[in-house]
Amino acid sequence: MRTLLTHANHLYADAKQVRKMQPYPPLQTLIAAALLRSRGEDVAFFDMTFERDFEAALEEFRPDRVVVAEDNFNFLTKMCTLENRRLALEVAAAARSRGIESIVNSSDASDHPGSYRAFDRVIRGELETGLVSGLEISHLDELPMPAWDLIDVERYRNAWEDAHGYFAMNLVTSRGCPYKCNWCAKPIYGDTYRCVSPSRAAAEMACVKDLFQPDQIWFADDIFALSPKWAREFAGEVLRTGARLPFKMQSRCDLMTRDSVEALAAAGCEEVWMGAESGSQRVL
After folding, report:
1. Is the CA virtual torsion 260, 264, 266, 267 positive or negative?
2. Which of 121, 144, 128, 149 is nearest to 45 (CA)?
């Protein structure tokens, strides 16, 4: 089985994102690629971030199936869905014209599977368990690290450095969020929450630091370091392994306790995005 993996988050389809110019590699897609490789499959990857000529990719790779695996950790694929949907449907049409099986997984496809009838199959919810038959993920440490070798890191580096003078990459340590904020949509993981071990999180950070030397990491978790104990152990592992890099993260005001803040700062945290929910504009 030869699988061609791609995603539908094309940077130049959104003028606002072009102005912002902060492209991140598609983590979910790269994790899926690594998983399929571990199962003995022949895997190719077409990065839609900078290129859009999927027809040429089909001609080059000649796959048995095409999987549009959206990066479920990138908020842009959860919020800016219309253009992503259009591009995904273009991929499905290109595959169908060649008699190639097509599969899609994304927040939008999970919410609106009827809009993706051009695909042979829609995987709703978590990608890996729908992509690999019989797979059960009892702990996220069991998943392989992303297949970083499949991306052209220098294109991302050049985009960041030309626009901002530094280079940022992304990592993720958890899936889901247990909180029930009214403004939040959770089409993939619902209210479930799972995280990797502190040692695995630090190991991935050390790997990216060693391979690519980024200036900053964005931890794309919906909520990072939910547990103060996890935060302390993560900081210890980061310092022990020399993985420390400046990073930014997303959390909640009530989780920013003194212990957690001190641990996260020690690990390299420099910026926290915090969501606040209130019916009062004065409180917001």
Report:
1. positive
2. 149
